[in-house]
Amino acid sequence: MKRTHLHLYIGVFLISVSTLTFEVSLTRIFSISLWYHFAFMVISIAMLGFGASGSLLMIFPMILNKSLLRTLSIIALLFSSSIVVSYLIVNQVPFDPARISWDHNQILFVLVSYFTLSIPFLLSGLVVSIAIARFPDKVGSLYFSNLMGAGLGCLFIFGVFRAFGGLGGILIPSLFGLLASLSFEYNKKLSSVTI
User: How far is 131 from 71, CA to CA, in rounded Å?
Assistant: First the structure.
């Protein structure tokens, strides 16, 4: 394995850890702050974000022509900050499940929450999609990094909640996103790799 690709695999791994840790955190937080069946809404929010990332790359393929290092680092940094920002925004949305049957504004609040929380998943999906699109010959290794990170993220959340509580479930994934950005930024040779 080339050293130039090692930081790419590490970055994808960290993004995946962060994404699944954030997703499971939202599920646990929603099960307490909203009715438990709204917790499962998080899966569809993640799917919306991931699907939108693929659509975005199809609509704007020029993203793939940018410097790989710079692009992945910036998107990972945006991902990291969007975790905290989207969570803070959604906490200000006055959604009350008990009022949904008679207050039609509650539907609007659900939509605002959906789209706001899908932004981190869109950015995470972009990182993985760009990496795979730029290195189709490395798809097996990239997918392995992605799946290992996702699996670890699902397990990691138990320790995060025990050690840091609900707020840690938001801040720790954001920190991992920042580490992914630094991993992409670390190796300057990666920006010159073309396919």
Answer: 10
